[in-house]
Amino acid sequence: MSCKTEKIETNEISFYVNGKLQKIKDEYPLYTSLGSYIRNVLKLTGTKVYCHEGGCGCCVVHATEFDSTTNQYKELSVNSVIFT
């Protein structure tokens, strides 16, 4: 019996928080939420986490996303504890 392993490339996610570029590869567990990252890594404790389910709404953060079909940016509200 032989075992073949292949190196799997990890994806990188990039986003801005308060105008500063954040680039993340695989240095955090997969279950790390955006809210946890903002509070624990960036030390921006104004982002609140309460129910850890997104139901109470205190973890909502503002996001801007480019829509390539309309060539415009759209504004979003994101529950940061369920956005992983």
TrEMBL record:
Keywords: 2Fe-2S, Iron, Iron-sulfur, Metal-binding. It comes from the Eukaryota. InterPro entries: 2Fe-2S_ferredoxin-like_sf (IPR036010), 2Fe-2S_ferredoxin-type (IPR001041), Ald_Oxase/xanthine_DH-like (IPR016208), Beta-grasp_dom_sf (IPR012675). Pfam families: Fer2. The keyword Iron applies. One of its GO terms (molecular function) is iron ion binding. Residues 33-65 form the 2Fe-2S ferredoxin-type domain. This is 2Fe-2S ferredoxin-type domain-containing protein. It comes from Brachionus calyciflorus.
